[in-house]
Fold this sequence. Notes:
14 strands
Amino acid sequence: MIEILTPSELDRARVTGRVVGDILRSLKARCRVGTNLLDIDQWAREMIDAAGAASCYVDYAPSFGRGPFGHYICTAVNDAVLHGMPHDYRLADGDLLTLDLAVKKDGVAADAAISFIVGETRNPEDVAMIDATERALAAGIAAATPGARLGDLSHAIEQVLSGAGYLINTEFGGHGIGSTMHQDPHVSNKGRPGRGYRLRPGLLLALEPWVMADTDRLITDPDDGWTLRSATGCRTAHTEHTIAITDHGAEILTLPQP
Length: 258
Ligand code: MF3
Ligand code: CO
C-alpha cells in the first residue's frame, strides 16, 4: 500500500526530517581521524533520545540482514556502502564514511544519508564519486514534481550516475516512507521516463543514489551478516534525503536547521 500523508502528518514529517538532518550534521562535525564507529553509534543514540525520537534501526530485522540490526546508525567505511554495522574501528585519514540514519517521531519516520571524507587526504576519485551521488539526488528531487511518474525520478538519477561513469546496482534503492521506514513504492536508481506510479501530494519518498567505483556487485560481510560491501573492495558513496511531494514540487525534509 502506498501511504499519502495528511497535512498534519506532513507537519510531523517535517519535524522528524529536521531531527535526522540535524543529527547527521552534528555527527559529521564530530567525526575525525581516530573516532571509533562505536562512539558514533553511541552519539547517535544519545541524540535520538534527546530529540524524543525512536530508532528505526535497532529492532529492524528484514530478510536481508542477520537478526535485529542492534545499532542506531549505519556507518559504512570505504568499500562498505549500505547497512554498515558500527564496529570497533577507528577512522583513518582519507577514509570515505557514509552515515545513514532513520528515526521515527510522533508516528512519522524520516531517513537520510551523507557521505564524506575524514581528515585531510582527499582522494579526487572519492570526491567525484560523492559528488555524483549528490548530483543524482538533486536531479531526482528536481524531477519529483506532482504528476511526474516514478520512472522520471529513477531516470533522472540514472542519467547522472551513469553519465559520471558508474554502474548501477538495482537490488537496493529508494523507497516510500511514512508510518514505517520502508514501504511501497520502491524507487529504483534506474528507470524509464513516463513509467510507473504517478506522484501525488502527500507522498513521502526516500531517494538514495549510491554507487561503487568499479563494480555493481555487492557482497554481504560474512562476520556481521549486514554490512554490504563492494565485491571488488573498491570505494563507494551514498547520499539520501526524505522528500515530500507537495502541490508545488518536492520539499526536502531531512535538511538540518539553517
Ligand atoms: N536507512 C537505510 C535505507 O536507506 C536502511 C538501513 S536498514 C538498517 O533504506 F537496519 F540496516 F540500518
Ligand atoms: Co532509505
